[in-house]
């Protein structure tokens, strides 16, 4: 079976998993560690670049990082916190589901188009960096919002 098809199916399942995790997370209070840890755990995936097939050129890195940061704006806009029961919770957003599905569709479309001209290993490296470039700014913004609410909740300036 084609690697692009298999990885696209995997991306769909990961997207569905992310939706369920997000819905479950909205039911429990959050903390700084829950916000910071996902990109830390994900960073171990950068070990793929040890293998030459996955390495990217400087221009590819620049393009993918810029695209990831642009995509992260959508995630940042739909991730807000609120104070409930004297705790900080992630607000549920109906738009988040549509944005996540939209980003998944764009990702699969890009992968399908680019797989015709870019080697599979290099494409894998690009899509890992794209995801990482989306998650890091999103989580930094979430952390800053969380800290602001935390100070407000605990009466700090």
UniProtKB/TrEMBL annotation:
Transmembrane segments: 6-23, 35-52, 58-76, 96-118, 124-144
UniProt xrefs under InterPro entries: CcdC (IPR031306), DUF1453 (IPR058247)
Transmembrane helix as UniProt keyword: yes
Keywords assigned: Membrane, Transmembrane, Transmembrane helix
Pfam short name (any one): DUF1453
Record's protein name: Membrane protein CcdC involved in cytochrome C biogenesis
Species of the source: Neobacillus niacini
């Amino acid at each position: 079976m084609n690697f692009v098809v298999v990885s696209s199916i995997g991306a769909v399942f990961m997207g569905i998993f992310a939706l369920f995790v997000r819905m479950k997370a909205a039911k429990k209070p959050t903390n700084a560690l829950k916000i910071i840890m996902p990109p830390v755990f994900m960073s171990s995936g950068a070990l793929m670049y040890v293998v030459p097939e996955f390495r990217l050129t400087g221009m590819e890195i620049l393009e993918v990082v810029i695209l990831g940061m642009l995509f992260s704006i959508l995630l940042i806009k739909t991730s807000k916190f609120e104070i409930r029961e004297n705790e900080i919770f992630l607000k549920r957003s109906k738009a988040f589901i549509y944005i996540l599905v939209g980003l998944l569709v764009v990702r699969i479309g890009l992968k399908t188009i680019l797989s015709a001209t870019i080697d599979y290993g290099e494409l894998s490296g690009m899509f890992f960096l794209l995801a990482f470039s989306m998650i890091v700014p999103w989580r930094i913004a979430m952390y800053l919002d969380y800290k602001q609410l935390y100070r407000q909740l605990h009466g700090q300036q």
